[in-house]
Design goal:
Elements (H helix, E strand, L loop, with lengths): L3 H33 L1 H37 L3 E5 L5 H13 L3 E7 L1 H11 L18 E6 L5 H9 L4 E5 L2 H43 L1 H9 L4 H44 L11 H31 L3
Antiparallel strand pairs: 1-3, 1-4, 2-3
């Protein structure tokens, strides 16, 4: 005789085995359906590929814009100019404040002589413009880099109120404007993606709809013998997910190849023209995993959603 615990354990084990068999059946049917309707499946895969390639253009623009914006932010230099008649004590106080500030990453003191040498370099071809001038007409300054560029405004405000400080300048306002542009690019990309999703889901839904219609007799029989609606629907949903993943994989391969070509071209030319400090494209190796995950998720969501819509509307059993 079996006790209750043994009986429950056997029953539970049987339920698990049944669920595993059911899952295997659904996955198998999903692959079989994809192969049976190969032509329409290829059409749906092509639509997913086209949609993701267009989305990929916006995605790579956002990634590279963000990357270069962060590089520019890291290069932001706060210039602290002392008054021309600032005393050595005032200069020492300002330097001590900068040196002990936890927000400061690095700083450099520029003496009057060093500032004059830099000015002479700038006006090397028009030396007559600074002829007769001496370092004494310039001011000492400090060139500061912060750990977090977001602290620039607060840091500049504090330093500007110290004795002996004439002016504090930094180009953070320009970077904020670039950040605004990036936000608009993000919004535009999401709008384009939404439109592409609607078109792709519609095509995939029509593909699954044809499959449902072709197998309507089989579906009726399954319904008569007690199969639940979701038992019938899941193979079609898996079919859509397979289509979406296949499209995502192909789109990722094409994106990687095309992007690698563009990246090599752009980086080589920016280096030739001395613009590598301003513009540099991210290496595909640094973002490949991120792109693949995004493509895979979007592709499978597109395929699965298309299947759900089709089965819900056209599975009349």
């Amino acid at each position: 005789t079996w006790n209750a615990e043994e009986l429950f354990g056997t029953y539970g084990k049987g339920i698990i085995q049944m669920k595993i068999r059911t899952m295997k059946y659904m996955v198998k049917e999903g692959f079989v359906n994809t192969y049976r309707n190969l032509l329409m499946s290829l059409a749906s895969v092509s639509m997913v590929v086209a949609s993701l390639l267009i989305f990929g253009i916006f995605l790579m623009l956002i990634i590279n814009f963000s990357y270069n914006l962060n590089r520019l932010k890291a290069q932001v230099e706060i210039a602290v100019f002392l008054k021309n008649n600032a005393t050595s004590l005032e200069s020492a106080d300002v330097e001590l404040k900068i040196k002990n500030d936890e927000r400061v990453l690095t700083y450099r003191k520029v003496t009057k002589e060093e500032a004059f040498a830099e000015l002479a370099t700038v006006y090397l071809e028009d030396s007559e413009l600074i002829e007769g001038l001496t370092p004494d007409f310039l001011s000492e300054s400090f060139r500061v880099h912060l750990k977090n560029v977001e602290d620039s405004a607060a840091f500049a405000d504090e330093i500007s109120r110290m004795e002996g400080v004439e002016d504090v300048t930094y180009p953070y306002d320009s970077l904020k404007k670039l950040g605004t542009v990036l936000n608009w690019i993000n919004v535009g990309s999401m709008a384009v993606l939404a439109l592409l999703l609607i078109i792709s889901v519609s095509i995939i839904a029509n593909t699954i709809k044809l499959t449902v219609y072709a197998r309507r007799k089989e579906i009726e029989i399954m319904k008569y013998i007690g199969a639940s609606d979701w038992f019938i629907r899941w193979p079609f949903i898996i079919e859509g997910v397979i289509i979406g993943f296949a499209g995502a994989l192909i789109a990722f391969i094409l994106t990687s190849y095309l992007y690698n070509s563009v990246e090599s071209f752009v980086n080589a030319h920016t280096l030739d023209y001395g613009l590598s400090d301003l513009i540099k494209m991210v290496s595909i190796g640094n973002v490949a995993g991120q792109i693949f995950v995004i493509y895979a998720i979007i592709g499978m969501v597109m395929g699965g959603t298309g299947s759900i819509i089709s089965v819900r509307k056209h599975l009349n059993v």
